[in-house]
Amino acid sequence: MPSRRPAFLTYVALAVVSYVPLFWSSSGEVTADNKTYLYLDPSKLLAKAPYLWDPTVGMGTVTHQTIGYLWPLGPYYWVMDRLGAPDWVAERLWLGTLLFAAGAGVLFLWRTIERRRPVWPAMTVAAFAYLLTPYVLDYAARISVILMPWAALPWLIGFAARSVRGPTWRWPALFALTVVTVGGVNATALLLAGLGPLVWIVWAVWGSRETTGRRALAGAGRIALLTGVTSAWWIAGLLLQGQYGIPILRYTETYEAVARTSSPAEILRGLGYWFFYGGDKVDPWVGASHTYLTELWLVVLGYGLVAAALVALAAVRFRHRGFAAAL
Known about the structure:
Mean pLDDT: 91
Order of helices and strands: HHHEEHHHHHHHHHHHHHHH
Radius of gyration: 21 Å
Shape: globular
Low-confidence stretches: none
């Protein structure tokens, strides 16, 4: 029993930090997060989501990313609506769950790759560092659905690590179910998150040498098979939308607009997404951006944390340091 106490306290602390500040801040206010119909009429959104053609817009059009709301965000808001939960409560629970899942995923990943000696103080620091990254601010205010691949990344790496250790279908199945849960709206974010499991599989064979090439290929094959089968519905939908739908991104997220703020320095401190830097005559699009761009102490602190992390990566002995550097 004593060995379980640090784990319990860590998860409790993660839950408190993930949920309490969100409910404390701007209670009763709803932000314009994701699609408006999630709050206005989730039943109508779910009814339209299975179809790529929407005859109610103009003279008819191919929908844009709507199919991804079939799971999990659409059903979540539908259930909350049926339960009579206020929209602002549903929003806070949704974002808080993403934060908690991200932190808990880091703990799961650490326990996966360091089976022999889980060091809870270090694991706790790692979990909170990932949960509290400024990266969350890029998306939390308007498009929190894109945070799903970020929250799933440590879980996907952990599932991949367990999948290549031996002949098992359990962990590849959990990998596939996670992908189908977090990937339906934005495939680009999922593909970038998918680099993490890929780097681990390579590292497990040629770096830590904890598995063989044959086992790694077998585990990767199971992952690919199950993921392809379970995600075919939304992959086909996004491909057809990209081919026949209105080229929205060509006018709203041009390469020039996106690349202008994605400097290496900003990316290092967890920012860089173009939307974070925009604004209009009333306010910045993301309220926290003004502080992160103008307050000298916060800028110095952000880069100081990055510098400390890079120094630790070079100086601290860690069996999987090569994997962390490659990632």
